[in-house]
Amino acid sequence: MSEISTGSTPEELLAIAVRVAREGAVTARRMRDEAIGDVQTKSTDTDVVTAADKAVERQVVEALLADRPGDGVLGEEYGDSVAVAPGAVRWILDPIDGTVNYLYGLPQYAVSLAAERDGEVIAGVVVNAATGDEWTATRGGGAWRDGRRLTGSARTTLDQSMIATGFGYDARRRAHQGAVLAQLITRVRDIRRLGAAALDLCLTAEGTLDAYFEKGLNLWDHAAGGLIAAEAGLVVSGLSGAPAGGQMLVAAPPALFPALHDVLVELDAAGGP
Ligand code: IPD
After folding, report:
1. Between 257-266 and 171-184, two packed helices, what is the crossing angle to 10 degrees?
2. What is the pLDDT of residues 243-270, one digit of tens each?
3. Ligand 1, residues 173, 193, 217, 247: which to mutate, most atoms within 8 A of Cβ?
4. Which atom of ligand 1 is nearest to the CA of 220?
5. DSSP secondary structure string, 106-168?
6. How far is the CA of 221 from the centre of ligand 1 (A)?
7. 158-266 is a CATH 3.90.1150.10 domain
8. Which of 34, 31, 25, 49 is nearest to 132 (CA)?
9. Span from the CA of 193 to the centroid of ligand 1 (angstroms)
10. Which of 19, 31, 33, 250 is the most buried (most CB within 10 A)?
């Protein structure tokens, strides 16, 4: 084994993550290209997505454990592989974030892979499998895209801001999310729903979007992208001092966060089912 594959600094873990996430992205893209006939003509839409999700996850997990057999993996499809001991690394993987985009061939679906130690995400990569765009971060080492350090948007007022969000799959949750948006949309420049939380976070980290919020995310949706946003200098948090998580995740530049936070509290964005 090479030195890098056995190392466990954030930078060394990131190097492994980037390699296996890129390979996973190639598989996701290839499987969609090959299955395009099935996607369009059969009633197997979700089967195509599920097969690709599982194949990418299996490939990434096998590659990680080949390099680092003692690590744990939390994956969207297979769950938690093993309990990790204190100080050990747990990888957090979303094999295809943006599965509905994947189904439709919309070019926003990504492999999201993070390394966590003792409950803290220390390295993360998000690869847009459709375009090859890639964002990375290590804790304390900044967030990067194409050799450019990311610093988020310079926007300071909510009414001039482009805010991204997403919706859960449950209809009752969507009803509440829709009601929140109906109010929010009158107070911001505009709203975007791109369909892949990891990419929403990366686009916010680079300042293409001004801010992002969503209720109901799973850890694999936001582990890598959340670190990338935080390392770009954004506030990544829940509401009223809660940590970012399933109840609510807000990612916004420090100058914008208080205004967005307060309106989300006012609209009870973390409430509902
Ligand atoms: C979903 C996407 C979507 C977000 C949902 C997620 P998936 O992940 O990130 O943008 O709104 O909350 O569940 O199902 O495509 O991996």
Report:
1. 120
2. 999 999 999 999 999 999 999 999 999 9
3. 217
4. 16
5. -S--EEEEEEEETTEEEEEEEEETTT--EEEEETTTEEEETTEE--------GGG-EEEE---
6. 7
7. no
8. 25
9. 10
10. 250
Residue 51 tokens read as: 């097969």
Ligand 1 atom closest to the Cα of residue 100 is 15
CATH of 10-146, one of 3.40.50.1980, 3.10.50.40, 3.30.540.10, 3.40.109.10: 3.30.540.10
Q: What is the pLDDT of residue 3?
A: 35
Protein residues with CB under 6 Å of any ligand 1 atom: 94, 97-99, 166-168, 195-197, 214, 216-217, 221
For the record, the structure tokens of 241 come out as 């001092």
Backbone φ and ψ for 100, nearest 5 degrees, come out as -70, -35
SS3 222: helix
Tokens 């109906």 — which residue? Answer: 182
Q: Which two tokens stand for residue 215?
A: 């209720």
Instruction: Give the model confidence (pLDDT) of 128-168 as tens digits.
Output: 999 999 999 999 999 999 999 999 999 999 999 999 999 99
